[in-house]
Amino acid sequence: MGQIILVGSGWNPFLFRAEMNSLVGYDNIIHPRLVTISNNSIINNLSKSALLDDMLYNTEIISNNNITEEQISLLIHKWALNNLPRGSFAIRTRKLGEDILSLSSSEIEKEAGALLVSEYNNVDLENPEYEVVVILAGLEDESFREEEFNSLKPVIIWGLRHKISINKFEDRNPIDRPFFKPVSLEPRLARLMVSLSYKPDFIPKKIIDPFCGTGGIAIEAILQGTDILASDLDAVMVEGTQQNLLWSEGEGKYMVKKCSIDNIVELWGRQEDCSFVFDPPYGRNSWKSDNGLDIFLQALNAAHSINPNGTICTMLPTVPEFNSEINSSKHLVMGKKWQELESLINSTGWTIHLKHKIKVHRSLARLILVCHPLH
Hints:
Oligomer: single chain
Number of domains: 2
Shape: elongated
Strand order of the largest sheet: 2-3-1-4-7-6-5
Mean pLDDT: 90
Order of helices and strands: EHEEEHEHEEHEHEHEHEHEEEHEE
Structural class: alpha/beta
Number of helices: 9
Low-confidence stretches: 284-290
Helix content: 25-40%
Radius of gyration: 23 Å
Distance between the termini: 37 Å
Strand content: 25-35%
């Protein structure tokens, strides 16, 4: 397939790259939302992604701010002689980031399309056999641009679209499920947490969620074809999760039980090839304990007992000021200074592999954590 480029959602470029690194492992970053991969053997993992927008193969990359639409079209024509198979085609152009390239998408599509037409290739805009995707990638918006990419230069890439199954999260809005509560996790975020529990050399066969709530994480796991072991202290949540899993028609197998975190090890026993993915119950009315930190640490200890070689992906409440790189040690996470909390996490046999803040509103943010074995 030649060089493969993965195109990420604009929702969160950092987490897009983290997800791609978990699922397939990328080679290079050519833009915050563009990474290259060379390992074709595990690209099927990409169907599990929450933040992948597109996948291109046999790609070409240029960096030239002064190039014209005509010059780009000529380069695409030259590329197509060796890379466009016989059959109908369409050219699709899209822009990423700020529009700092004064190039016309429609002109590129028109001029390149005219050059590519031959007795072997005809244009079909409705249902083409092949799509040549051209991406004009400029800087990300300054309001959420990552500092390391401040010196980024625009790039222009093109390649053949590899048709992959893109998740349509709007089709499974939590309010459309048989069982709904306002605390339900948004499907894209639940899917992301599941895929972040992967490693290129570790594909969990089971996901364990000890605080399943309305089943958001469980639904995304079985839709990927991954088995789920879910539990909750609240019998109403357990019954609701069972209803939602049946409704989702996922391919993975599932078991849902009423259980406290105190008894989770006895419930599931030792499990190989599994990961823990959960949104802990900080402040949930369904939990009798007010000490969310103790419950969280119990979950980490239980995960280590069940599978010390697995992974963990979880999400904790923090302050909007939390910065993953600068002075984060003094910021509060789950009511604890981050430096202290990290030490407590290490004491349970896990180490932080990734942490990244997502803003919720002015006074609250959530910190996504991925933990790997400390050994």
